[in-house]
Amino acid sequence: MDPLFAAAGDLREAYAGVDWAATPLGPVASWGPALRTAVDLALRTRFPVTLFWGQQSVMLYNEAYVPMIADKHPAALGAPAREVFAEVWGDIGPMIKQVLGGGGATWVEDLRLEMRRHGFLEECYFTFSYSPVMGEDGQVEGVFDIASETTTQILATRRLRLLNALHDRLATVDHRGEVLQRALPVLRADPQDLPDAEIVAADGGDAAVRQTAAGKVATVRLSPRTYAAGDLMLRTTLNPRLLADETYLIFVRLVGATISQALDRARLREAERRSTAIEREISETIQRSLLTPPPVSEHYRVAARYEPAVEHARVGGDWYDAFLLPDGTMTVVVGDISGHDRFAAATMAQVRSILRGIAHTLLGPPSRILAAMDEAMSGFGLDTFATVVLAQVSTDPEPGAPAPYTLRWSNAGHPPPILLTPDGGTTLLRHPSELLLGTGLPATRSDHSMTLEPGSHVVLYTDGLIERPGKPLDEGLRGLADLLTGRHDLTAEQLCDHLLAASRAGAGDDIVVTVLQAGR
Fold it and tell me: What is the pLDDT of residue 239?
């Protein structure tokens, strides 16, 4: 063997097996200095290099170049490039001819070539440069090709782009049917990797690749658990221009996994919505069954409204109550139990019933009733907190004279009542805050009182009427006062409707509004 091929490594036998005398290059001993120098340089580098020598571009290459031509080796060694690369000669032939003709070096980045190197026309990508090799007379004798295959990077980038697009499209899906509607257009936008992707009913099998008349078909189940009727699978023909290797199949499985995760999220969200709807229905049923119409009295008009939260998970513990005590005193209660679920609604029912019983039994002032309620909650083991405002209105009219009304109230950590006077003015009945019920801590309960003019309205409510995200509570109170100002001509019923209509849009919590109107 000629010493020239000593650096050929595993290609030494291939070089020795070529009858170089039968090639356009002639016997190795006859090769000129330029060719021998170029071959020595090519064989000693670890980078993929090939030489296209002479007008027929006879190929000589190093060991690192072999994987790029795969099955073309070893027949390509010593053969004209036009024969070796017949299927891509229209792409590379003019570039080689340009360099051989003295046109200078070329540079191509990520050039797509459909090359036959594994028994089929394969989609491949290469970055390479063709450089002239000059003889002693200054003429171009050959072309030095330094190449790098970028197929793996191009395919990985393309597939990652699809996976990202698929994830983005499915991230906010709430319904299983919407998953398919969003996924398929994304998959069909990539015919290079998923030529005819579709989502169909599962046949009970797991991920597989089958050879069909249409080519290789990959299937991936979209249900992570055991097979059941109604399960789905991703099915796609594999691109016949690509190797059906593990990298390709991993990509298909990742597409399936992304869709599966979206289906699982949608199933979970649907189940949560069903559960929330059931819970909401239970809570509303409990509340509405207890929130009975206020009593009718010749001296008072009481109206009340309950509005469930728009956000289902917020349905819970707001309540009102209104009843006449045996001595004719009108008692109005508005409260809010901590929590927002069916348990809060059930606890609310207990608290409401106990409080009404205490009021009827004690026949005392509001502060005493709330203090007894605090003790009862501790004694009965009611593990909850409650804000409550309890108001009593009484009258002792003389025959033929306007009825004087006395309002007494006590407040356990609840938003303050608002007084709407007969001239349309408003007063916030705010006093130093007192401890809410259910803490188990010693608390001082105070009574507040004032005389009500006939035609006055006292408005009690829960925080859903005034609280808005990111807004201070005082701003909500001022807004409520503005809504009431000048509305003294409205009845108690009309005033409730007016406040709800104005406040409903921004509310994120239950709303209770109770209006007590002193008779004229």
Answer: 95
The answer to whether the beta carbons of residues 234 and 252 sit under 8 Å apart is yes
Token pair for residue 202?
């599962």
Please check whether residue 499 is in contact with residue 483, taking contact to mean a CB–CB distance below 8 angstroms.
Answer: yes
Sign of CA dihedral 60, 64, 65, 71: positive
Question: Quick check: 228 pLDDT over 70?
Answer: no
CA dihedral 6, 9, 11, 13 (to 10 degrees): 60
Number of separate helices (H) and strands (E) present in the chain: 12, 19
Calculate helix-pair angle for 151-170, 246-290, nearest 10 degrees: 10
pLDDT band at 310 (very low <50, low <70, confident <90, very high): low
Residues 6+ apart with CB under 8 A from 203: 219, 233
Q: State how far the Cα of 482 lies from the Cα of 492, in Å rounded to an integer.
A: 17
Q: What is the predicted pLDDT for the residue at 376?
A: 94
d(CA 373, CA 369): 6
| Cβ-based neighbours of 49, under 8 Å, separated by 6 or more | 41, 42, 61, 62, 64, 65, 144, 145, 146, 147
Instruction: Please report which helix (H) or strand (E) contains residue 6, including its range.
Output: none
* Cα–Cα distance, 146 to 138 (Å, whole number): 21
pLDDT in tens, 80-101: 999 999 999 999 999 999 999 9
**What's the rounded Cα separation, in Å, for the pair 305 and 495?**
10
Give the CA diameter of the chain. 140
Contacts of 88 (CB under 8 A, 6+ apart): 113, 114, 115
Q: In angstroms, rounded to a whole number, what is the distance separating the alpha carbons of residues 317 and 297?
A: 28
> Which residue carries 């597989």 as its tokens?
208
For residues 211 and 243, the answer to whether their CB atoms sit within 8 Å is no
- Chain segment 152-163, per-residue pLDDT in tens: 999 999 999 999
Residue 312 reports pLDDT greater than 60? no
Among residues 332, 305, 335, the alpha carbon closest in space to that of 319 is found at: 335
Gap between the Cα atoms of 222 and 230, Å rounded:
11
Q: What is the pLDDT of residue 155?
A: 97
Instruction: Yes or no: say if 236 and 252 are a contact pair by the CB < 8 Å rule.
Output: yes
Instruction: Let me know if 191 is exposed, middle or buried by CB neighbors in 10 A (0-12, 13-18, 19+).
Output: exposed
Look at strands 405-412 and 386-395 and give their pairing.
Answer: antiparallel
Cα separation, 241 vs 387, whole angstroms? 72
| pLDDT, tens digit (0-9, with 9 covering 90-100), for 474-509 | 999 999 999 999 999 999 999 999 999 988 666 667
Average confidence score pLDDT of the chain: 90
Say if CB 496 and CB 288 are below 8 A apart.
Answer: no
Burial class (CB in 10 A: 0-12, 13-18, 19+), 330: buried
Q: Is the peptide bond before 404 cis (omega within 30 degrees of 0)?
A: no
Note the pLDDT tens digit of each residue in 15-40: 999 999 999 999 999 999 999 999 99
Residue 96's CB is within 10 A of a number of other CB atoms, namely: 20
